[in-house]
Amino acid sequence: MFIDNWNIQTALWLKRVCYERATDNPTALTFLLSAVWHGVYPGYYLTFFTGSLMTLAARNIRSNVRHHFLQSPELKLIYDVMTWIATQVAISYTVAPFVLLSVKPSLQFYSSWYYCLHILCVLVLLLMPARARKKERTDKESIAPPPENVKKDEKTSEHNSHAATNNNSSQREETAWRRPSAPQ
C-alpha cells in the first residue's frame, strides 16, 4: 500500500512539475525527468524511453480504435480484455531494462523479442494519425485551482500550496499524521 501511494503521489508531482508545464512533447519530457530521478543506470533510460514510445502509441491506438468498440457491452468487454492483455505484455517488455540495469543485457532482451514492440510503436506513430486530446482545464487552472473552488474549511500544509493536485482519497488522513509546525 505504501508503494502504491508513493507512486500516486510521484505521478501527481510529475504531472504538476513537468507534464502540465512542458510546451513541447510533455510525455517524453516527463519520462525523461522520471529517468533522471531514478539515477544513472542505462536501464532506467531505456525503460523510460520505451515507456514514452508505448504511451504515445497507445494513445494513438485508443483515440483511433476505441470508439468502434463502444457500440455494445460485448464489444467493449472484448476491447477491455484485449487492451488489458496488451498492457500487461507492454509493461513486462518495457520494464525489463529497469531490472537488468545495464545496456548489454537490456538490448539482448529486446533483441530476443526482435524489438517487435519498439517497431510496432514507431509504425503506429508514423501511420496512425494522432488526434488532438481534449483539454479539460486551462493552463492556469491545472496548476492551481481558482479560489472560489477551494473549500475554506479544508486544512492544507503550509509546505503544499497545491492541495488540488493531491486528489487521492487519503488527503485528510495524510495531513492528519503530520506534526504541527513548531512555533517560531
From TrEMBL:
It is found in: Endoplasmic reticulum membrane. Keywords: Acyltransferase, Endoplasmic reticulum, Membrane, Transferase, Transmembrane, Transmembrane helix. One of its GO terms (cellular component) is endoplasmic reticulum membrane. Residues 149-161 have a biased composition (Basic and acidic residues). One of its GO terms (biological process) is lipid modification. Residues 135-184 are annotated as: Disordered. This is Lysophospholipid acyltransferase 2. It comes from Engystomops pustulosus (Tungara frog).
